[in-house]
Specification:
single chain; 172 residues; mainly beta; Porin; eight-stranded antiparallel beta barrel; two-stranded antiparallel ribbon; 1 helix; 11% helix; elongated
Length: 172
Amino acid sequence: MNKVYPLLAFAFWANGAYAHDQINTTAAKIEPEPAKAFNVGVGITQELIHLNTEWVNPYGIAYVKGGVFLNDDHKIGAQAGFRYPAYLTGKDNNGYYVGAYAGHIDSRRIDNEYKTRLGAGIDLAYVLLSSERISSFSVGIGVGEKLEDRTGFVVAETEPRLQFSYTLSIGL
């Protein structure tokens, strides 16, 4: 049995040496293509189902979202924002981006009709950015305007609220 161990060790060593010889270290290293400047896609931001356009520029990613809220009246809402790359994690321009947004953040029922609520905030996003697509998931915190009904009862306070968002866009 003791004579088998050196034979097995030699076999593993020989296979490893053969595999190392088969690796081509002179292969060309292809640079990734830059991301497309303009992208269009779809996404969801809290209760807002939207179409979005994104502009990738040397300073970050600017975006505009427009869609409808998922409630009984389907009020129209829109947001605009910008994200700056804070920490890139390697291939392409994937990584963490910090940004700011402003626009419609909510739709509330007031006096038997739905009204949209304006607000603004900051967010932290993880962006998967390649030459074909942009995929981003973000978590933000912001505030919205105070909404009152006709009697003066406060329906929505101006207080911090979380905003979750996911978008998927393809390059033009």
